[in-house]
Specification:
It is a single chain. With 167 residues, the protein is α+β, with helices and mostly antiparallel strands. It is built from four helices and nine strands. Helix 3 packs across helix 4 (108-123). It starts with a helix and ends in a 6-residue tail after the last strand.
Length: 167
């Protein structure tokens, strides 16, 4: 009985550690990533196409104060379960709430702070650098990932593949 349990654990680990193929990635995904140290969370809607191209729309939220929409097209690759995407037409626009817009209009310090944040946010746009996602598990239509920002900063997320049904 004990041997059967250990064999089951080994097989389960192998299933999760299996090499993910590009065919597994092709499709439409909704990904959510938390960046707690920055008080940011993102939601991205990305389509990875079989020809290695991608198109996406994303939303970045800084607490309940600021919100931005991003759009891009790019190219993607998969190597050793690291999904890398590069874009040269990345755009970011503010989509703040009415409450935030009123504060920007009436509070000069907040207005300057938001302008600085927005400038910093756009600095990485179209730099040619890849966004790298380490895929830890792919089970069914759910992928657990980590956004690798550098060797020390990695942020957990989850992606759900859009399932198209013939109704």
């Amino acid at each position: 009985m004990k041997k059967l349990f250990l064999l089951g654990l080994m097989l389960t680990h192998q299933a999760f550690a299996a090499q993910i193929t590009p065919q597994d990635i092709v499709g439409e995904w909704s990904c959510k990533i938390q960046y707690p140290e920055m008080k940011i969370h993102t939601i991205d809607l990305i389509e990875y196409q079989a020809d290695g191209t991608s198109v996406g729309t994303g939303y970045l939220f800084l607490t309940d104060l600021l919100a931005y929409e991003t759009q891009h097209t790019g190219k993607w690759t998969l190597n050793n379960n690291i999904l890398s995407e590069t874009s040269n037409d990345y755009s970011t626009i503010p989509i703040h709430s009415d409450k935030t817009m009123k504060r920007i209009a009436t509070d000069p310090e907040f207005k300057q702070w938001e302008a600085n944040f927005y400038t910093d946010l756009k600095k990485g746009n179209n730099s040619g650098e890849s966004v790298n996602l380490q895929i830890h598990q792919l089970v069914g239509d759910t992928m657990s990932i980590e956004h690798i920002m550098d060797e020390k900063r990695k942020f957990a997320g989850i992606c759900q593949k859009r399932v198209i049904t013939n109704e």
